[in-house]
Design brief:
The chain contains 17 helices and 17 strands. By secondary structure, the protein is of the alpha/beta class. The strands form 3 sheets. The chain has a 9-stranded mixed sheet, sandwiched between helices. It has a 6-stranded parallel sheet with strand order 14-13-12-15-16-17, with helices on both faces. The protein has a two-stranded antiparallel sheet with strand order 8-9.
Length: about 475
Amino acid sequence: MEILHVAAECFPVAKAGGLGDVVGALPKYQNKLGAISKVVMPMYRTSFLIENEWQLVHEGGQFLGEQFFHYSVIREKTNRLGFDLYLVDINGLLDREKVYGYADDIERFLAFQITVCDWLKSWSRLPDIVHCHDHHCGLIPFLFKYADEFQSRLHNIPTVFTVHNAQYQGNFDWGKSVLLPSYDSWKWSMLDWHGQINPLAAAIKSSWRVTTVSHSYLQELRQQAAGLEKLFEYEKGKCSSILNGIDADLWNPEKDPYLLFHFTINSFEIGKKKNKEELCNNFQLDPALPLFCFIGRLVGEKAADLLPAAIQHAINRHKGKVNILLLGSGEKSIENELYHLQHSLGGYFKCSIGYQEALSHSMYAGADFLLMPSRVEPCGLNQLYAMRFGTIPMVRRVGGLKDTVIDMGDDGGYGICFNHASVEDISHSIDRAIALYSNEPTQMNHFRKLMMGFDFSWNKAAQLYLDLYKTLKY
């Protein structure tokens, strides 16, 4: 079985969030199970592009409305990621440093999707499955079925669409419909949602199957999906959920190249202690105190707007007994508040605004607790990384957090869970964590060893996707 994954991100090529981690791991694990799994994504101007060797595999041209553009498709020569990686180069549109955040993102990802369809049309043997990820690729199932120049060749290819985050839908005004290839005008409603072209809605309507990245998130989407609730309810017959995994080769404290001190499930006490000391020394924090970390985007979806007040409350309440370290970027107002707190709270709170892959690994290894108070969390990978490194997750019961973390007060539990995205609930969870840390280390070490023994790798999920593909006619 040959699968082509289409996505805007893929770690380590280009990553803005969890989508990149998923696309960078799932195809590799599918190949280990005997499939032929490949990835195509835009060609951004990243260090990965510069540092690797590439082979030109296809050239062509297409129209974005009345504007003609030339494109090329290149392949990474060495298969270093464990799967064939293809990049689409469109000069002036895709060859930029950032993945998102440009005024013409709609045009950029429309051109990318049109190019993928045009390239696929040239294949002598079509893939058995095309698996599209999030709204940046959401129009591809529609184009396969209804675009005049693609449907005769591509309409029989089964498409699977995975919703990684329904908060982002890529919608745009019908005035830009002229940018699309000509299509069966009777099918305009497949593109429309509330008077706009909505790529996420179009994908849910047009793809053969829809998946979400955790079981609870699928249920939540019927009540809270940024306006698509009725659509998820209507299309529930084609929807299913497969919980994300993590790349256990990459996120492995025994051999993680970003760590100075490696450890296993049998040596985590000394290993975590050394990593914590190194991390705290780098940020002038006291390694004798419990270390709480937050790693993620500083946006409302992650409840990051609550962090300044929660941090100030925790440090004022437990002054001299707690350290907090934050890594992330996002809304400038939140960043500014955190900068101010760093200067006003002495040596108990430090923040690093931006994103550093190496630092994130060090934080997972060195932290005692990882805080995730998210308002929306389709799956969450950070809590899985934390558990792999023996760091106790503190999570709100939502989406994939609810599916992967059991409160230590329940039978078989190991984490700290709370119900509301509020300063009060965050503060109470910090109180619980400090009480645990202050007790004899036996109980905390029990939880750490329990978590490190879990298998959150992609092995199970990769097989579930293959099983899903096999139910489709190809």
